[in-house]
């Protein structure tokens, strides 16, 4: 298998992983809403979906059109970062349990999540997204996609984190929330 074919398989596997996330997210969002959860930040959600979908397509287009030379050290080191970011993402999902979803849904009265990666970082899932956004395209030297996604994602995360933090701030100090980030 060529490096480009292997990269295509890797991106396809990440796409399948994202579909699995959406299945978990949909189930968990229903759970949160059934318990009185309130969703905020709907306006940026379609932008987030489009950005993340476009990200997967863009790196494949860039790799297939540009066909860059890929130093083995770059490919392997970036693959290690991708795997670490996936591990962090699923650690976040496991820690949040039924409260994890890709939307911002606050469930009044639930205790805050302070275990797992949340005892170390305020928004560990977004650290995983940032790391993967840089590393996954660079597995095949798709630096234009890495740069473009990183800049667009930074703008999106500025909105997303503000929405999420505002939603959490509406709860008493002893309550928690449920979303793709802290909640």
TrEMBL record:
Species lineage: Bacteria, Bacillati, Actinomycetota, Actinomycetes, Propionibacteriales
A molecular function GO annotation: protein C-terminal S-isoprenylcysteine carboxyl O-methyltransferase activity
Any one of the GO CC terms: membrane
Subcellular locations according to the entry: Membrane
Lipoprotein among keywords: no
UniProt cross-references to InterPro entries, sorted A to Z: ICMT_MeTrfase (IPR007269), Metal_cation-efflux_comp (IPR052527)
Topological type in the membrane: Multi-pass membrane protein
Record-level GO BP terms: methylation
Annotated protein name in UniProt: Methyltransferase
Residues spanning the membrane: 44-65, 72-91, 126-152
Keywords for this protein: Membrane, Methyltransferase, Transferase, Transmembrane, Transmembrane helix
């Amino acid at each position: 298998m060529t490096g480009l074919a292997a990269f295509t398989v890797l991106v396809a596997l990440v796409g399948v992983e994202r579909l699995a996330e959406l299945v978990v997210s949909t189930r968990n969002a229903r759970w949160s809403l059934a318990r009185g959860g309130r969703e905020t930040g709907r306006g940026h959600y379609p932008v987030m979906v489009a950005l993340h979908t476009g990200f997967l397509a863009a790196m494949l287009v860039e790799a297939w059109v540009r066909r860059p030379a890929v130093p083995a050290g770059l490919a392997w080191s970036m693959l290690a970062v991708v795997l670490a970011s996936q591990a962090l993402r699923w650690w976040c999902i496991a820690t949040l349990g039924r409260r994890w979803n890709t939307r911002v849904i606050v469930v009044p009265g639930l205790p805050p999540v302070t275990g797992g990666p949340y005892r170390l970082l305020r928004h560990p899932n977004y650290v995983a997204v940032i790391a993967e956004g840089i590393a996954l395209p660079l597995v095949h030297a798709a630096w234009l996609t890495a740069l473009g996604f990183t800049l667009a994602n930074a703008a999106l995360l500025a909105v997303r984190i503000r929405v999420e933090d505002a939603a959490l701030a509406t709860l008493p100090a002893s309550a928690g929330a449920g979303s793709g980030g802290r909640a």
